[in-house]
Write a structure and sequence with these properties.
The protein is mostly helical and about 475 residues long. It is built from 20 helices and five strands. The protein has a five-stranded mixed β-sheet with strand order 2-1-3-5-4. Helix 1 packs across helix 2, helix 4 packs parallel to helix 16 and helix 7 runs parallel beside helix 9.
């Protein structure tokens, strides 16, 4: 929202005015928020309304996707309802983040691809894949997998080239403005958030550092961790459906002879592999599934496909109509129970952010000069509500800190060197994040703090404002 406000009011893609920076992992969502900010006076409720609309759109697209792969009308409707009331997606629709935008676009692209598999590829589907990539970088994997899916069906390279030569150009053209802006602000092809979060942890960083031990981890260990998180992610979303996903994958594989699409299994299998290799930063469980939400419609369709296959086994001994009703009731009933609990967690999360981050930003707006420079590691609400220039000690919107973080053996030492170099007017941090920094009592003088009772989403219980006394 900070980026969106600056785009809407000043026409600049920047966190701090006058400092354009490619620091949004979801630039398409940021631009959409800028439109919301321009059109509506109450941006909070307007943003939530957009999120809910996208949630219901993703549910409708899941119905179409389920029917396209052969689940029929009733199971398709059940799949759509499951998606709409899955707690993580309900949270995503209200979170103000990009969750439902990329889930909707990726589901649309997958449906259009499967629908057009027996004819020319869908150009609209390719555009959806490209836009989904601008809403969440993990989705850049979908378009290559769609090409692979068509090759597995036809096994003809010349035909594949003829089908996709225009599509590759269109896909690249949609992504090009973002890449150009990244080069313009950073001199690199990817947004600064990638270099700040992933850094040396992925395969590219490990190879550039010549760290062969980390290369081995990236190729073999991290994908297993990511796969474990994806499995837990599915079980936490809907236990009964997740248990049927392996049967669903078999259901897809056993129908290969009929030349049906394999895109859903390809995505579910490839996601933990490629994420573990390229960006082993957090996983499917991070922030209520923020990075893996687009897998939920696919897991739902695959699980219900597996359920359909299992029902066929028992058709002779049990009335499958009543079995389907019983299974649907069990799935929906358990989801409603989960929503009750997750609503409480969501409320506690909001209370954490309001009481700590929003309150801190508002205090800084009232008690610091307008030209004050703040340094903090949690920039969102503090930057938005304070209206002050912010130095990001994690490096998401302040790439200048990254060389300091790489130069020193610990993050705290790198941040301290950066702070001494920049000499901000105020430092705001959670002492538990940087205990070494908070120990510099001769320089950092605490002047205000906020504390939480129960911590659910905040990264610590106490946030402190320090007024530093820098040594010349």
């Amino acid at each position: 929202m900070q980026f969106a406000r600056n785009i809407s009011t000043r026409g600049e893609f920047a966190f701090n005015m006058g400092e354009p920076i490619a620091a949004s992992t979801a630039p398409l969502w940021t631009l959409l928020l800028a439109v919301v900010y321009t059109l509506f006076s109450d941006v909070v409720w307007a943003t939530k309304a957009v999120g809910v609309l996208l949630l219901w759109t993703s549910g409708a697209l899941t119905v179409l996707l389920a029917r396209e792969v052969g689940l029929g009308t009733r199971l398709g409707l059940l799949a759509g309802i499951v998606v709409v009331i899955t707690p993580r997606l309900v949270w995503g629709s209200l979170s103000g983040m990009e969750v439902m935008l990329y889930t909707t676009l990726s589901t649309a692209g997958i449906w259009l691809h499967i629908r057009s598999l027996k004819k020319e590829p869908s150009l609209v589907g390719t555009v959806c894949f490209a836009l989904a990539s601008l809403a969440r970088p993990e989705c850049v994997l979908l378009f290559p997998l769609a090409i692979l899916d068509r090759w597995l069906r036809e096994r003809n390279w010349q035909q594949l080239y003829r089908c996709y030569r225009r599509h590759v150009v269109v896909f690249g053209l949609v992504l090009l403005p973002s890449v150009v802006f990244n080069f313009y602000t950073l001199g690199k092809p990817l947004p600064n958030t990638f270099y700040a979060k992933v850094g040396p942890y992925g395969l590219l960083g490990a190879l550039s550092n010549g760290d062969m031990g980390r290369v081995v981890k990236v190729l073999f260990y991290y994908p297993l961790l990511q796969a474990q998180e994806v499995a837990q992610f599915g079980l936490e979303n809907q236990f009964f459906i997740a248990c049927l996903v392996p049967f669903g994958l078999l259901w897809f594989f056993l129908r290969r002879e009929s030349q049906l699409s394999m895109l859903i299994p390809l995505i579910l299998i490839s996601f933990p592999l490629f994420r573990g290799v390229l960006a082993p930063f957090q996983g499917a469980l991070f922030q209520h599934g923020r990075y893996a939400a687009h897998l939920i419609p696919l897991m739902t369709v695959a699980g219900l496909g597996g359920g359909l296959w299992v029902v066929q086994w028992v058709r002779d001994s049990l009335n499958d109509r009543y079995l389907a009703w019983a299974f649907g009731s069990l799935v929906l009933g358990s989801l409603m129970v989960m929503n009750t609990r997750c609503a409480q967690i969501y409320g506690q999360d909001v209370e954490n952010i309001e009481h700590m981050h929003v309150k801190m930003g508002q205090w800084l707006a009232k008690n610091t000069p307008e030209d004050a420079v703040l340094a903090t590691h949690d920039i969102g609400a503090i930057g938005y509500f304070s209206g002050r220039r912010v130095l990001d000690t994690v490096g998401l919107v302040t790439p200048e800190v990254l060389p300091f973080l790489r130069q020193y053996p610990s993050a705290a030492q790198g941040v301290w060197a950066f702070l001494n170099d920049q000499k901000p007017d105020y430092v705001i941090m959670l002492p538990n994040w940087y205990p070494e920094l908070s120990a510099h009592k001769d320089v950092l003088k605490p002047i205000y703090d906020v504390q939480l009772g129960k911590v659910t989403i905040a990264a610590g219980q106490r946030m402190v404002v320090y007024r530093p006394i820098w040594k010349e």
